[in-house]
């Protein structure tokens, strides 16, 4: 049976003078959490602090079982709660949901947490080698071949943040997050796909360069010349 006037919990030994019990149950986006009252009010002036120290239980929304209800991301709330327990941020390596978690931190008015989750600045260089042939009529006979491989150079943690599981690390495995590498490459061959991923996380292009070398030429004027090229695009996030 839903509890109407007192908060759902297993103990009524809360802080002196508080209408809330020591143990509180929350329903966050359908995920149930059980925590201590003092954890929820660990950060003064945060949203949860205001809810559980300035308001009474009757003023807060509840679900059908009497749990306090928050219409937020239930999966990401686990990290919000972990942070409130000891005010330390511990995330899995190369956590892909940082931007969404930062949005949750902003909503719960956890300014220090939101600041820690802000995107790090840095540079990533995208490179690729290609080849093409040029016949006697340079303007019409140029034949471009498929890009063989797109390389990624930069700090390991940034590269993994941007490209995630589309990054091939086989040539430089177990590289520490704060080290740099020039040996990663992507699992696809479309430059536009790489550019889209960089743009989505706040990078923008600041420079590019390209070189071309004649790799094969014949004395026969009727045969095509084969050229190879290397192109780099430098992206920055400030």
Automatic annotation (TrEMBL):
Keywords carried by this UniProt record: Cell membrane, Cell projection, Membrane, Phosphoprotein, Postsynaptic cell membrane, Synapse
GO terms under cellular component: postsynaptic membrane; presynaptic membrane; receptor complex
Keyword Phosphoprotein: yes
InterPro entries: BTB/POZ_dom (IPR000210), H1_KCTD12 (IPR049905), H1_KCTD8_12_16 (IPR057093), SKP1/BTB/POZ_sf (IPR011333), T1-type_BTB (IPR003131)
Record carries keyword Nucleus: no
Alphabetical list of Gene3D superfamilies matching this protein: Potassium Channel Kv1.1, Chain A
Domain of life: Eukaryota
UniProt-listed GO biological process terms: protein homooligomerization; regulation of G protein-coupled receptor signaling pathway
Described function: Auxiliary subunit of GABA-B receptors that determine the pharmacology and kinetics of the receptor response. Increases agonist potency and markedly alter the G-protein signaling of the receptors by accelerating onset and promoting desensitization.
Protein name as it appears in the record: Potassium channel tetramerisation domain containing 12.1
């Amino acid at each position: 049976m839903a509890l109407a006037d007192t908060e759902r919990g297993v103990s009524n030994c809360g802080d002196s003078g508080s209408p809330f019990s020591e143990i509180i149950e929350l329903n966050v986006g359908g995920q149930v959490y059980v925590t201590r009252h003092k954890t929820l009010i660990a950060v003064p002036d945060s949203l949860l602090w205001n809810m559980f120290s300035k308001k009474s239980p009757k003023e807060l929304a509840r679900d059908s079982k009497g749990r306090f209800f928050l219409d937020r991301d239930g999966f990401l709330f686990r990290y919000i709660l972990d942070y409130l327990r000891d005010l330390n941020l511990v995330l899995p390596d190369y956590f892909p949901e940082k931007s969404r978690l930062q949005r949750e931190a902003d909503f719960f008015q956890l300014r220090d947490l939101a600041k820690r989750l802000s995107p790090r600045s840095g540079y990533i260089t995208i490179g690729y080698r290609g080849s093409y042939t040029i016949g006697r009529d340079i303007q019409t006979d140029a034949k471009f071949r498929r890009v063989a491989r797109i390389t990624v150079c930069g700090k390991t943690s940034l590269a993994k943040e941007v490209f995630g599981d589309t990054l091939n690390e086989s040539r430089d495995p177990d590289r520490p997050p704060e080290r740099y590498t020039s040996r990663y490459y992507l699992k696809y061959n479309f430059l536009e796909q790489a550019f889209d991923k960089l743009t989505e996380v706040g990078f923008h292009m600041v420079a590019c360069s390209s070189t071309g070398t004649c790799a094969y030429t014949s004395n026969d004027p009727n045969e095509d010349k084969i050229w190879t090229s290397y192109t780099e695009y430098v992206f920055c996030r400030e």
